[in-house]
Amino acid sequence: MKHLITIVLAFGFFGYSCSNNPIESPTVDKSTINVGVFDGHGGSQTCVWETVEAIKIDKEMKVRLITTSDIANGCLDSLHAIIIPGGGGSRQYLNLGHENHNRIRNFVAKGGGAVGICAGAYFFSNTPGYASIAINGAEAIDIEHDNRGHGLAKFTLSDEGKNIFPELATRDTNYVMYYEGPVFINASDTINYISFATMESDVHEEGDAPANMTNDKPFFIGNSYGKGLVFSTIAHPEATPGMRWLIPRMVRWTLGLEYPSYSENTVRPTLFEKEILFTKDMLKRESAYYSTLLYGTAEEKVEALNWLEANVSWDAKRLVQGLLFDSSNTVRIRAAEYIANSEFTYYLPDLRAAFKNEKDENVKAIIDSSIQFLESM
To answer: What is the SS3 assignment for 257?
Structure first.
């Protein structure tokens, strides 16, 4: 199992808006940071799981799932920050309803933090003809090509972004999973955002979208909204091994809190050093490998897992869980390594169950190593 390590540095940050007015950081009780992750219709189940698991990296944060009824019943009063995860922004908008949209706006305006991930960033935007609540100052364009593609995208940080993520400050280019996220430009409203990072990848092949649409557009943005702060990411750090820690860091920025160090196993920006954008041929191969995981020989299953991991398959991690209980020792070993290397901590209970039931001592040792690695994050 390949585990690359990097050194973590932590610095504080107070940003500035595009109009050069200070982004004022709210005052927060630092004893426990209560974070709610929206779990409603329209949210991708994987995105919800991975967002919750990413927040758990920060030991001072307590995370809970919140639903439409929770928001209507006043749960925001007990939270410091909320996260709208990936999925479908318009469906999340419809699931919440106008009164809950206003509750979210009021929560932020009074000093709460808000992080929008992909569809959540769409939801926060001010996009004509799209279901959005207009709290981040951005407008999504080319929405007719939302299925433009996905893969490991490259981005560069602005000076302000380097202050938020100093662990990445010496790197010219970084890589995070992107999956059909919004293409942002400035909206014609009174909210000014600052760009913390710029998208450098041109993603367009899967949905036959126009070329040169995503590159040179905002990747991470932040802004004030009343007394609160909003952070929007068009991509999925929570789904990227070595970069999941960016999510709790974003939450801390919205609350004006200091940036603690996370473990060396958690902060691994050098894990990926190249762009991997899925082509139509790669999609076909990925789909074929899903059948291999169902019906292939042990050798074929291992070959499939090797390719899926090397290409950072978005969906494959959901399929590996059952392979921990495969009849083949080799497959069980590779499945345990895959889950650890993917940092899919949501499957820690399955790893523990597999360890408890494993009879082969060599397999048991690998599973134990995978458990220890994930528990160290």
So the answer is: coil
